[in-house]
Automatic annotation (TrEMBL):
The name this protein goes by in its record: Heavy-metal resistance
Residue spans crossing the bilayer: 7-30
Statement: the UniProt record of this protein carries the keyword Transmembrane helix: yes
Keywords from the UniProt entry: Membrane, Transmembrane, Transmembrane helix
Length: 170
């Protein structure tokens, strides 16, 4: 009789643990805070950025076409540079994981190259922002400056991280 009672308790414990695991997994998979969902809705996807900018800045068709061309060129250049950067990062990782003394110069060289390329990406970004700003008229520039400030200076990703931690964006 005692054996059957222990068996029932063991089965009951197993069922409770399975239920708790299922609830935990469900919470992880399906429970997203409303703030994050709302932010995803507010942030226009890259494909719709052109329409978003046209609406927000009241762009003319000519301005929109020029900006589309500038953006296309910018993203092609950045994509190419990021591909090169990825290759250099892989080489750097390989050099870092090889513990030989002779590869110190290689590590320094790759580190300098990575730094240079990251700076180049930043320069390209600010050149792009400037080129788009030059297409705008004086009435559109203040709103454009606001949009760029919201996007790049305040740091959209830092804001998301803070919201996930329960802090409000400042």
């Amino acid at each position: 009789m005692e054996y059957q009672q222990k068996y029932r308790w063991a089965v009951t414990g197993l069922v409770v643990m399975i239920l708790l695991n299922a609830i935990t997994l469900g919470a992880i998979w399906f429970d997203r805070p409303d703030q994050i969902l709302q932010e995803d809705v507010e942030r226009p996807p890259r494909d719709h950025m052109q329409q978003f900018m046209k609406k927000e800045l009241n762009l003319t068709d000519a301005q929109a076409d020029t900006i589309r061309t500038i953006r296309g060129r910018h993203f092609r250049e950045v994509r190419q540079l990021m591909g090169d950067l990825g290759e250099t990062r892989n080489e750097y990782f390989e050099a870092m994981t090889n513990s030989g003394q002779g590869n110190s110069d290689i590590k320094d060289s790759l580190s300098n190259e990575l730094t240079s390329r990251y700076l180049q990406v930043e320069r390209m970004l600010y050149r792009h922002i400037s080129e788009v700003g030059n297409v705008l008229d004086d009435d559109q520039k203040p709103r454009y400056k606001e949009l760029m400030k919201e996007t790049f200076i305040r740091g959209r990703h830092n804001g998301k991280r803070e919201q996930r931690r329960g802090h409000e964006r400042k």
